[in-house]
Amino acid sequence: MARTKIEVKGFEAKFYDYLMNIITLGYYPFFIKSVVNSLPLKDNSIVLDAGAGTGRNSTLMSNRVKDSIFICMDIGKEFLNHLAKKAKRNKQLNPLKASLKSPLPFKDNSIDLIFMCFVLHGFEHDDRLFILKEFNRVLKPNGYFCLVDYNDEIDLKKSSIFTKIGFYLECELASEFITHKWEDELAGLGFGNFNYKYYFGKKVRLTMCQKED
């Protein structure tokens, strides 16, 4: 089992959207549309998609609003190629090559909403905390952080064999990720007003919270 799979490359990156559809038995498009429809998006906003991948999620978000800027941040060559193609057709999308392990190239209090989908669990815990501190720095007061990732209420010892296999195939850090109480972690970093939605039999959670003013 790999410790992390944070940077997707090669065949997996080239056909990432198709593979996600296959792995979830066709459920992924319905899942991500439900997620996007739950987000507190507004017109005339600046949105950071942190770990934007192919731009699939940013495209769906951009369809919900007008006159907004979506900063599609990723580090992978193949993903950035996907993003560049989508940005030619959708002027709200703005690809950006940058690493989440470095300070974000944005001013304090400049972003309305940050979205992150199945990325945070792939980092070491110290890196996760650094990333979240940076998110809090660049968000406007009362700006939203919306995180899609594994639900920290999962108890792998009591889970089905299918769930255990899924986490084994994911990465070592995914199993470590769910040992942390993320509402407590986020509250300690200056976030509040937590709201949740659950998916895949409560194995996946959408956390929506705000930077405290």
Structure write-up:
The chain has 213 residues and is of the alpha/beta class. It has a single domain (10-202), classed as Rossmann fold, CATH 3.40.50.150. 38% of the residues lie in helices and 24% in strands. It has a seven-stranded mixed sheet with strand order 3-2-1-4-5-7-6, sandwiched between helices. The longest helix has 14 residues, at 125-138. The chain is globular and about 45 Å long. The mean pLDDT is 92.
CATH architecture: 3-Layer(aba) Sandwich
User: What would you call the shape?
Assistant: globular
Quaternary form: single chain
Q: What is the CATH topology classification name?
A: Rossmann fold
Neighbour order of strands in the largest sheet = 3-2-1-4-5-7-6
| Superfamily (CATH H level) name | Vaccinia Virus protein VP39
What does the main sheet amount to?
A: 7 strands, mixed
Q: If helices are DSSP runs of H or I spanning 4 or more residues, what is the number of helices?
A: 9
Total domains, how many? 1
Keywords:
alpha/beta; Rossmann fold; 9 helices; globular
Helix and strand arrangement:
Layout: H1 10-14, H2 16-23, H3 28-38, E1 46-50, H4 56-62, E2 69-74, H5 77-89, E3 93-97, E4 111-117, H6 125-138, E5 139-150, H7 161-170, H8 172-177, H9 182-188, E6 191-199, E7 204-211
Parallel strand pairs: 1-2, 1-4, 2-3, 4-5
Antiparallel strand pairs: 5-7, 6-7
